[in-house]
Specification:
Elements: H1 5-8, H2 15-35, H3 40-52, H4 77-100, E1 108-114, H5 121-131, E2 133-138, E3 146-152, H6 154-161, H7 165-174, H8 177-187, E4 190-194, E5 197-201, E6 206-212, E7 216-220, E8 225-229, H9 234-255, E9 264-269, H10 272-280, H11 282-289, E10 291-295, E11 303-307, E12 310-318
Helix pairs in contact: 2-3, 4-5
């Protein structure tokens, strides 16, 4: 639903909008029929609202309908695999944002992805939109942004190399993390000498952490590594302000019970920094919030907002014809 909002809200009744509504309608009716044995009353309500209200010849109850059958010809295995990859990537990307404490409304310049798959432009655009990232780059090596740190797993290393434990800790703290990980992946063990004793450590003997270069945040699972560039330029910071202003105005539209297509006037006062951002981005903001004008004064049931640490008064008023 969220991915299709722009299709639903398109002007007129172009074919893409009709396709979006018909797909949603078909999905809801089919789900109602499939879920009827488990949630009989809710499924009945959905079915009667969607079907009986417009089709007098349809069965009068969802429980009188045939159970949906699978049409294997409509299953797109590659599409499902690609979307699963998109979902995994987006989840890791959101984890990066959370770790860096950067809100999703703040645009990010680049995200690097190391994975056993490479997604096409269509799917890259979905990732960019979901994570508010300007560029998605697939790479086979993220070591320019990350390294590995190693510590001994005491419960396994202690019994084998008890007397050398201190030397092992010191050695692991000084090795090249990326080179050590390469050796571990290639040989299955990390081998080195401590005070004349050969030490051979497998993955089970090690506590391995991924550390990142300053300005970059990394998250990984067993197959995918995502690196987010958290360095923010002035342009990106201003764009983040624009998204925050739009969000506050949309919230005020909703709180004022305006209809989706109501045109409005925006009032803004009390903060020169926010006013300058608004002036430089008036067209983009007004297009998003359906505003015909911005007045730099108090009005429209103004309310105080915190926009990325800046306090500002914003008001909205429905435009009269």
């Amino acid at each position: 639903m969220r991915r299709s909002r722009e299709r639903f809200w398109a002007k007129g009744m172009e074919q893409d909008k009709i396709n979006a509504y018909m797909t949603l309608y078909t999905a809801l009716v089919t789900i109602a029929k499939a879920a009827a044995p488990m949630i009989p009353f809710m499924a009945e309500e959905i079915y009667r609202n969607l079907v009986c209200s417009i089709d007098s010849s349809a069965p009068e109850s969802v429980h009188l309908c045939d159970f949906p059958t699978v049409d294997a010809k409509k299953i797109d295995v590659q599409l499902e695999a690609d979307m699963e990859a998109v979902l995994k990537t987006v989840v890791l990307g959101r984890a990066c944002r959370n770790a860096a404490n950067i809100k999703n409304r703040q645009p990010i310049s680049t995200m690097f992805i190391k994975a056993p798959f490479v997604l096409g432009e269509f799917y890259q655009e979905i990732i960019e939109e979901e994570l508010n990232v300007k560029n998605v780059v697939f790479t086979e090596d993220v070591r320019a942004f990350t390294t590995y740190t190693f510590k001994p797993q005491l419960k396994t290393v202690g019994p084998k190399y008890g007397k050398q434990l201190g030397g092992i800790k010191e050695k692991l703290s000084t090795i090249d993390g990326n080179a050590a990980m390469d050796e571990l992946e290639a040989q299955g063990v990390l081998a080195f000498d401590v005070n004349g004793t050969e030490v051979r450590l497998s993955k089970e003997d090690l506590l391995i952490d991924v550390s990142q270069k300053e300005g970059y945040v990394t998250e990984a699972d067993n197959t995918v590594t995502v690196v987010l560039d958290t360095n923010l330029t002035k342009e990106l910071i201003e764009e983040g302000f624009v998204y925050e202003i739009i969000s506050k105005i949309q919230t005020m539209r909703k709180d004022s019970n305006f209809e989706v297509m109501d045109r409005i006037v925006v009032y803004l006062s009390g903060n020169d920094t926010i006013a300058e951002v608004m002036q430089r981005n008036t067209e983009a903001i007004c297009t998003k919030v359906l505003a015909d004008a911005v007045l730099y004064e108090n009005g429209g049931n103004a309310k105080e907002w915190n926009v990325n640490g800046q306090t500002v008064m914003i008001g909205v008023e429905k435009q009269t014809k």
